[in-house]
Design brief:
single chain; 155 residues; alpha+beta; eight-stranded mixed beta sheet; globular; disordered N terminus
Length: 155
């Protein structure tokens, strides 16, 4: 079994287990977290070799839904749907580093932008238009003490 296939099966297996146990997605009752989050919208994976990562995910049976260039950057974003959650892979095409991909961020959907802002106070950055039409996004600041980037998004 190639490393590429192993990575793909391992990653998809982990996500499948999470969905099967109802930890993510629409099957879980929408019980809000104290920050107002009701569901995970998408998980962001940073890849040092996006070509390798996309090939591994394709080998594992995931269908690439969208690929876009990040404006004013050399980075690309690739999107996959796994159940109700989006997997976003970010990387620079043509870069081939042997390091593994890693979790870069998590985006949760909130029911109420104002309530989320009130709950997080200065730990939440300003709300701005999201790439997704009609939605808004705000980033939890590093000063909140999180080791992984987290953002909140409206429905």
């Amino acid at each position: 079994l190639s490393a590429r296939l192993f990575f793909g099966f391992f990653f998809v297996g982990i996500l499948s287990a999470v969905f099967s146990f109802g930890l993510l997605g629409a099957d879980r009752a929408a019980t809000a977290h104290t920050n107002g989050s009701v569901v995970i919208d998408h998980v962001v994976l940073r890849s040092p070799d996006i070509d390798r990562t996309l090939a591994a995910l394709a080998d594992a049976g995931l269908e690439l839904r969208r690929l876009r260039e990040v404006p004013d950057s050399t980075m690309h974003q690739a999107f996959f749907r796994i159940g109700e959650v989006i997997l976003e892979v970010v990387g620079e095409p043509g870069r081939h580093d042997a390091a593994p991909s890693s979790l870069w961020g998590l985006v949760c959907t909130v029911a109420d932008e104002g309530a989320a802002s009130a709950a997080l106070g200065n730990s939440l950055g300003a709300w701005r238009a999201a790439v997704q039409t009609g939605r808004r996004i705000a980033t939890v600041r590093r000063s909140a003490g999180l080791s992984t980037a987290v953002a909140l998004m409206t429905r």
